[in-house]
Amino acid sequence: MDLQGTHYRSSQVTPPPLRTELHSGWTLRASAGPAPEAVLGAAIPAAVPGCVHTDLLAAGLIPDPYLDGNESLTSWIGLVDWTYRTAFTWEPGGHDRHDLVFDGLDTVAAVSLNGRVVLDAANQHRSYRVDVREALVEGRNELEVRFRSPVRYANEQSRALGARPRPYPMPYEAIRKSASNFGWDWGIATYTSGIWRPVRLESWSVARIAEVRLDAVPLPGGGRLEAEIVIERHDPDAALTARASLRGSEAAVEIPAGADTVRVAVEAPGVRRWWPVGYGDQPLYDAELTLDTPDGPLDAVERRIGFRTVRWDTEPDDEGTPFTLVVNDRPVFVKGANWIPDDALPVRIDRARYERRLRQALAANLNLIRVWGGGLYESEDFFELCDELGLLTWQDLLFACAAYPEEEPLRSEVEAEVREQIPRLASHPSLVLLCGNNENLWGYEDWGWKTILDGRTWGADYYYELFPRLVEELAPRTPYIPGSPYSPPGMHPNTEAHGSMHLWEQWNRRDWTTYAEHRPRFAAEFGWQGPPAWSTLVRAVSDEPLTPESPGMIAHQKAAEGNTKLTRGLVPHFRVPDDMENWHWAMQLNQAMAVRFALEHFRSWAPRTMGAVVWQLNDCWPVTSWSAIDGEERLKPLWHGVRSAFAPRLVTVQQRGERLAAVLCNDTGDDWDGDLVLRRTAFDGTPLAERIAPAFVAARCTLEVPIDPAVAAGGSPADEVLTASFGGERGLWFYTEPRDSRLEKPELTVRSEPVEGGTELLFTAANLVRDLTLLIDKADPDAVTEQGLVTLLPDESARFLVRHRGGLDLEALTAPGVVRSANELVAE
């Protein structure tokens, strides 16, 4: 490998910094462990950044672990020690320092340069920089990274630190590596190893910018950027100047000899505030921080920043303790989804994939993404895109569903990673919350941990002492909570009237209609399972015959008693179909109905409830799970349910004691007025009762309108429906479950019209058709439609825009397996 870095022209004494990627010429070898014969001794071409799995796949040495039961056939990878090697040429260039920089190593690695160990690493969640000037030689240099088996290392550390309670067999709490990498109730166990983020050689002189801590403060008529710059010096006595530049304004501060931190602030008139999507625009501004000597520039860092204020209102009120997000002094109803790593082999996620997923989130009317604590600190690409799109972000620190040791060597690694991540994350205007962990506070109270721990540490010092101290030091204006769920001190962490709440009894033990029994101040997790899109499923599982319990299906169902819970959750609403395609549709539809029901209920209680974060947005492989978008990026019916329930304006019919009420939810900046039309009709369209009354809903408000019992009281529950229509939106109330109703086979006519990028379909119903949906991937795996779960009364029509490539005729677009409704699961 030849070093080919980027030089900058300069006539000054100090040469400009040189940053050279070391991404070519790598090979991979199995150095110890149960590798198969075809792998042992082989020098496998390796991609950097990358991981062992992707290299073995590229070389044809393993089957795709995402297909059938191949997960078990590739589990040996996590038991093997792996060695990466490359060579490069190097010539001295007049610099004082030469640093080898790894942005990410997964996970336990010893790095050698020319036979000299220069770094021992044991944390996937941080970067590493080491001065290698004493190890470099002129000419050829050999670089080696030896990874230890993550499975063996985690088990060794668990024995050394003491076993801790967790829900899964592998001791992921004993290693600083993505917890879900060891398998989860939606995730494949991959046990990855590799140089998973960029690596480079950085050569510099005198001093460099080691870190910047930014705070963009809105002011009347503009804003002020406050920057704390951390400096690493080679020359402790050099005269240095720090500069901050923003929109033509500049400020400079002289740095005393020996000082390694400096604060500089620059004011920029005319900058506008950054707002979440749906509340305003997202103006971003390029800021530059530079480090200079009298002889010229030394280093520079550029960041895109946004000006906004953020806080969470937790001031106790008459009903408990709210958990209300306030951005720029305006309360925000959070419409969110939980995020897991988008691929179980995260090196395959690029910026384009992030953008596709986040735009799908935006199209579903989401305004917040919660990055869950068993995954990763998401990349700059992720956060930059959220900044641009106006998607708020909540980042868990990476501790999930387990008791974590507080002893060394883990404690120092934890502090190092969090010290690195807080300033990076806090510079993004989209970030509105840092959270200490996922469910560990709850687990300590309710999951029998206290008895098992018998006095051992479990992470409390991290969540209540270390992390808040680091946030205060590094990003004092960034909100922090110790965990999710979380209630104020002295209370059970999952208390409905206080703070945030997770609701899992519905999925685990109860019917989804019991969401209506809860009025949380903020619902941070809840969800329902459903299978992936049909084309995703049949590509991943080749069972013959394919059934809900066939071997490949079970391999792609990770939840404990998952299929039992699917069935138990379906039976109150639909009978369990005997054939596979109807089973697939029934489970997908029930998932969508469950979450849509919960979301409409939560929204109807605003402002008591001020947020709902669905579990979960995405998947990391093809699997039956709680996701709205499956592992091959396809929309599930749940996505349509979320989009509907999170619409800017929503009309929903809700039970209020013994009566029904129409609830009008206006999450826009404009007032909403018109006539509220309440109508009860028979399924055949016969009008039975009606009331019309004017209504007014102020911006960002909710209005509850009791429904006259003469209209609401159904005379024939099995074949009547109540509709509440207002301002172009409609809510529906059915008096019985679908299985007990008189839904008939759908009678639909359809017209098609070619449009740019696809086809528009116009469906007209002759009878009531409930939750009309196109499983459009059955017609074309790449086709997409954002319309779904549409209920049509007799003589009503609905348009579906199908985006697809090439020719798809009407017959393909409207085949029986493509056009689905609840009716088909009920009608004889």
TrEMBL record:
<dbReference type="Pfam" id="PF22666">
    <property type="entry name" value="Glyco_hydro_2_N2"/>
</dbReference>
<dbReference type="InterPro" id="IPR036156">
    <property type="entry name" value="Beta-gal/glucu_dom_sf"/>
</dbReference>
<keyword id="KW-0326">Glycosidase</keyword>
<feature type="domain" description="Glycoside hydrolase family 2 immunoglobulin-like beta-sandwich">
    <location>
        <begin position="211"/>
        <end position="308"/>
    </location>
</feature>
<dbReference type="GO" id="GO:0006516">
    <property type="term" value="P:glycoprotein catabolic process"/>
</dbReference>
<feature type="domain" description="Beta-mannosidase-like galactose-binding">
    <location>
        <begin position="26"/>
        <end position="197"/>
    </location>
</feature>
<dbReference type="InterPro" id="IPR050887">
    <property type="entry name" value="Beta-mannosidase_GH2"/>
</dbReference>
<dbReference type="InterPro" id="IPR054593">
    <property type="entry name" value="Beta-mannosidase-like_N2"/>
</dbReference>
<dbReference type="InterPro" id="IPR008979">
    <property type="entry name" value="Galactose-bd-like_sf"/>
</dbReference>
<keyword id="KW-0378">Hydrolase</keyword>
<dbReference type="InterPro" id="IPR006102">
    <property type="entry name" value="Ig-like_GH2"/>
</dbReference>
<dbReference type="GO" id="GO:0005975">
    <property type="term" value="P:carbohydrate metabolic process"/>
</dbReference>
<dbReference type="Pfam" id="PF00703">
    <property type="entry name" value="Glyco_hydro_2"/>
</dbReference>
<protein>
    <recommendedName>
        <fullName>beta-mannosidase</fullName>
        <ecNumber>3.2.1.25</ecNumber>
    </recommendedName>
</protein>
<dbReference type="InterPro" id="IPR013783">
    <property type="entry name" value="Ig-like_fold"/>
</dbReference>
<dbReference type="GO" id="GO:0004567">
    <property type="term" value="F:beta-mannosidase activity"/>
</dbReference>
<comment type="similarity">
    <text>Belongs to the glycosyl hydrolase 2 family.</text>
</comment>
<dbReference type="InterPro" id="IPR017853">
    <property type="entry name" value="GH"/>
</dbReference>
<feature type="region of interest" description="Disordered">
    <location>
        <begin position="1"/>
        <end position="20"/>
    </location>
</feature>
